[in-house]
Amino acid sequence: MVGGEELTPEAFSAHRQRMVEFQIRRRGVADERVLEAMERVPRHLFVPPAARESAYDDRPLPIGGGQTISQPYVVARMAELAEIGPHDSVLEVGAGSGYAAAVFAELADRVTTVEIRPELAAMARENLDRAGYSRVEVVAGGPEAVDPERRFDAILVAAAAREIPPDLEERLADGGRMVIPVGSRFSQHLWVVTRRGDDLERHRHEAVAFVPLV
């Protein structure tokens, strides 16, 4: 119950619509495909049962192991910056509970998400299956656990690196975009890397706060 309201599927849907309108659209995310994806994905299925009444608050929530599910606005903003198209192949680094991978699956043709913590990889797989995203590939391990010959149209990293990892830049297809938080524990910004043939364009965007990339 939230304020006396029973948490039915209809109530969750209403909360999700308000989340998109007031916490995402009004904060500047304008890509309609991203907004529609955020409205379709049931975030309450990707948080622990005790946190479900807060599932559509615009804040990170704990999922165990010292990790969190990212706030909805940040997921939407990263998806917008990645410019994920319907025919794209996406790599997510840091599956967490699987929520962001579900959003990306609404936008892309193929999504692979990697998670170095086996217990979180198992949680992500279970959550994605329960929410109807069984076609998302969940890999227990880091990016190196994915076929090194594969290249991706979009790479999204859900943890902050001290600097942009060259090995991830190498995984970008021509025209591919990577969105990654970069900086120290106390000062991070989103960066977008775009591959143009052999050249890489790098642009800094807004400040964020993520757990460190390990």
Reported for the largest beta sheet, the result is: 7 strands, mixed
Low-confidence segments: none
Kindly state the number of beta strands: 9
* Mean model confidence by pLDDT: 95
Strands across the major sheet, in which order?
5-4-3-6-7-8-9
What separation lies between the terminal Cα atoms?
Answer: 37 Å
Structure explained in plain terms:
With 214 residues, this protein is α/β, with parallel strands linked by helices. The protein has six helices and nine strands. It has helices at 9-24, 32-40, 72-82, 99-107, 118-131, 166-169, and strands spanning 61-64, 67-69, 89-93, 110-115, 137-140, 152-157, 172-184, 187-196, 199-208. It has a seven-stranded mixed sheet with strand order 5-4-3-6-7-8-9. The protein has a two-stranded antiparallel ribbon with strand order 1-2. Helix 1 (9-24) crosses helix 3 (72-82). The longest helix is centred in the first third of the chain and has 16 residues, at 9-24. The model has no long low-confidence stretch (mean pLDDT 95).
